[in-house]
Amino acid sequence: MDAEVVRAWCSLALEALGREREEIDAINVYPVADGDTGTNLYLTAESAAQAVEAVFAAHETGRSQPSLADVMHAMAHGALIGARGNSGTILAQLLRGMAERIGAGGQLAGALRRAAEMAREAVAHPVEGTILTVASAAAEAAENAPTDALHAAYAGARTALDNTPRQLAVLDRAGVVDAGGRGLLAVLGALVEAVSGEAPAAPGLSSARPALQARAVEPCEGGGPAFEVIYLLEADDEAVARLRTRLDGLGDSLVVVGGDGLWNVHVHVDDAGAAVEAGVEAGRPYRIRITHFGAEAAQSAAEPRERVQRAVVAVVPGDGLADLCDQAGATTVPMRPGEPPASGELVDAIRRAHAREVVLLPNDASLRHTAAAAAEQARAEGVRVALIPTRSAVQGIAALAVHEPDRRFDEDVVAMSAAAGATRYAELAVAERQSWTSAGVCQAGDVLGLIDGDVAVIGKDLTDTALTVLDRMLSSGGELVTLVLGDGVPTGLAAHLEAHVREGYLAVDTLVYDGGGRGTPLLIGVE
Asked: What proportion of the chain, given as a percentage, has pLDDT over 90?
């Protein structure tokens, strides 16, 4: 294995889980029959693949290749921070175990063994007939293979997967194999293809899918906990050990993975607040996700609502812009600093919009490929999707302002695209370290003014830099200035900028919005 093989592995695993996501969801009965194992594995793999691509992108500027250790570490870290659900969390730990050995030059068999051991250690109460069993079988087969450990591992995993209904009664009753183990087999199959160039034949999933789907509408069957709680946690090892004990007393399906001060915590509980409070006592929890197992089933059991003709789905940075877009009728997807949404989240938003036609506004240049993947998946589900490649929230605001759901879809998309394209955008940011930019060398703490994605101004003061950026943008004309304020901007900044535009540029109007909770202090749009 080398760095390129790992890159191909991530890409192929994502493709495989994307193809099989819905079928894996359909056979999900353990630990909770909520039909999301395939989706959770896909989102976890997507986060791992994005992290690997980021490593390769960072090396492109230096015209060098990343090392195997760097790529394996990125894959494991990406899976850790993006892990979803019980199965995704375990997959993240399996990848961490493999990265630990392969990144240090170890052999595949030893890497699979370490991965299986670490995954079992992460689960509070390991159960046979699950993804853990499949992982252990893959490791054992690889260790006993005289040659070709990789194909042996895949064959061992496949045999173990076929046997899972004999080990877990809930699988036997439903007539299915374990969904998490099925997802792991897809990941191992992708590794076989990345190394050998040939994909192994995929096994069948279930011979009793209709019966299973009837069962899956009652996800809380058996009186299990009502909530799934997941969060990232910054804490030391001792605090995490205490946290495990406390969470084990609150619920079940406890999985804690990670290390080196960063952990991903997953548990099923009836008291979601207590699970989060336990994390607060242990360290700093963030990216907290709480899912009610019965909510989705109750919604599907209710009388289905009729689809609307058209909707807009927009990615928004900050609560203020989310409120603004909500008022305009858009379905919003939050984008928090350092936490770009995955394509699965965009697809979920498109589904929530419940429309025959959807206009998708990513509002960030880095989301171009993610939004394109989401649009393709939604189209495969029968939704007509138009992706307008907005690169900033101010372009999305401009597009949303001319949206008219009553006109023809193509005409509406053209009008929204024209409005977005006619909007130049800028943002102000604070440099975290000394670095070279297109405007010269900046120092840590300098204020950077980026126009259309490139650093154009380096300043010391936020207000002065904003004025310089405004003047540069308006020098080529404009009719409307849009200002989106982030948290912590100086008092009176908006009024100062408005007065500057009013006094220096006749017939140019200014709109001001409170972005709230954004990662950058100011966004500027000029139409």
From this structure: 55
In angstroms, the first-to-last Cα distance of the chain is 51
Q: At what angle do helices 85-102 and 68-82 cross, to 10 degrees?
A: 160
Cβ-contact 331, 360 below 8 angstroms:
no
Q: How far, in Å, CA of 202 to CA of 186, rounded?
A: 8
pLDDT at site 304: 54
Query: Which of 169, 110, 172 is CA-nearest to residue 138?
Result: 110
Give CA torsion, residues 218, 265, 84, 2, to 10 deg: -150
Q: How far, in Å, CA of 131 to CA of 178, rounded?
A: 7
Helix axes 237-250, 272-282, angle to 10 degrees: 170
pLDDT (tens digit, 9 = 90+) per residue, 409-462? Answer: 999 999 999 999 999 999 998 888 888 888 889 999 999 999 998 999 999 999
Beta bridge partners of 331: 313
Per-residue pLDDT reduced to its tens digit, 229-256: 999 999 999 999 999 999 999 999 999 9
Q: Which residue has the tokens 């030893």?
A: 110
The 10s digit of each residue's pLDDT in 187-219 is 999 999 999 998 887 665 443 343 333 333 333
Which residues, in sequence order, are bridge partners of residue 345?
Answer: none
pLDDT at 517: 64
CA pair distance 174, 92, nearest whole angstrom: 27
Long-range contacts of 410-413 (CB under 8 A, 24+ apart): 412/310, 412/359, 413/359, 413/386, 413/388
User: Rounded to whole angstroms, what are the CA distances from 268 to 34, 145, 348, 505, 525?
Assistant: 12, 38, 22, 58, 44
Other C-beta atoms closer than 10 Å to the C-beta of 269 total 23
How far is the C-alpha of 379 from the C-alpha of 153, rounded, in Å? 36
Of 149, 178, 167, nearest to 28 by C-alpha is: 178
Q: Treating both helix axes as pointing N-terminal to C-terminal, what angle do 179-196 and 131-144 enclose, rounded to 10 degrees?
A: 40
Amino acid at site 73? H
Helix ranges, 1-107 (H): 3-26, 37-60, 68-82, 85-102
pLDDT above 80 for 315: yes
Nearest to 224 by CA among 288, 300, 293, 167: 293
**Tokens 């919604």, residue?**
299
Q: What are phi and psi of 430, to 5 degrees?
A: -110, 125
